[in-house]
Amino acid sequence: MLNLKDHVRTIPDHPKPGILFYDIGTLLGHGQAWRETIVRLGDMVHPLHPDILVGIESRGFLVGAALASHLGIGFVMMRKKGKLPGKTIARTYALEYGEDTIEMQEGLIKSGDRAVLCDDLLATGGTAAAAVALARQAGAEVIHAAFVIELNFLNGRTRLDVPVSSLLCYDK
Predict the structure, then answer these.
(1) I need a labelling partner for 145 at 20 to 30 A (CA). Which of 44, 98, 119, 165 fits?
(2) With 90 as the cut, is the pLDDT of residue 95 above it?
(3) Residue 111 DSSP code
(4) Which residue(s) pair with 142 in the sheet?
(5) Is 59 a catalytic residue?
(6) Cα(136)–Cα(126) distance, integer angstroms
């Protein structure tokens, strides 16, 4: 069995000094490791019987679209304000300094759809919590959040009111 952590590169001082960035680019670049990542996520999510997956731009698109294809279900993109065509619904959320807004296209989630949030990384949980709220605003029953990587030391899962699973956990 592949050790997926062997395929995650860490980059010090990105995007600013003092931050250690966990880069899935090297995981994506290794075909067998990426396939194994999607299979393992599928093993976690499939028993939940979701109707739809939702993912946050941009690396959440990579994870969510591949996982949705593997599971044979649809995928809905959540992007920064103004990036999606057509009618959208939005959710504004607080950042450390200021706020941001994410949007999704209207009508892609049907009322009562069982949704799972997918992303590459769970850090502080602020964006993930906003994504869960936005999916609910669209009518979804958000049943789970699944991540490739979780930074345990940032306690992001405490901001989510759904069960959380992660393939790879880092404690600092």
Answers:
(1) 98
(2) no
(3) T
(4) 115
(5) yes
(6) 16
Residue with tokens 């706020």: 99
Residue of 35, 57, 96, 103 with catalytic role: 96
Catalytic position from the list 59, 79, 91, 157: 59
CA count, 13 A, side-chain hemisphere, 159: 18
Domains of the chain as residue ranges with CATH? 4-170 (3.40.50.2020)
With vertex at residue 100, the alpha carbon angle to CA 94 and CA 103, rounded to the nearest 5 degrees, is: 120
> Is 96 one of the annotated active-site residues of the chain?
yes
For residue 172, with 0-12 CB atoms within 10 Å meaning exposed, 13-18 middle and 19 or more buried, which class applies? exposed
Buried b (16+ CB within 10 A) or exposed e, 58-87: ebbbbbbbbbbeebebbbbbbbeeeebeee
pTM over 0.90: yes
